[in-house]
Amino acid sequence: MQEVxxxxxxxxxxxxxxxxxxxxKGVTYRExxxxxxxxxxxxxxxxxxxxxxPQIWIGDCHVGGCDDLxxxxxxxxxxxxxxxxx
Length: 86
Hints:
alpha+beta; Glutaredoxin; 86 residues; four-stranded mixed beta sheet; 4 helices
């Protein structure tokens, strides 16, 4: 399984929802909290092209935010992306 990285803030309901979906699938992820860390948020924004959280990567693939993650799940594509070879 590829590494999953999720940039979050602690009280973001979309971050909580995305983490809940991943945890429910048994996915271990690396969470990077950007609360009060403008340098980390700027780094995330430079990579994602967005400043909103969450921003999620599965391996080298930038998934996007919570809505994007949920769309992959609804389309039955999330499990394949999680299992894809690095």
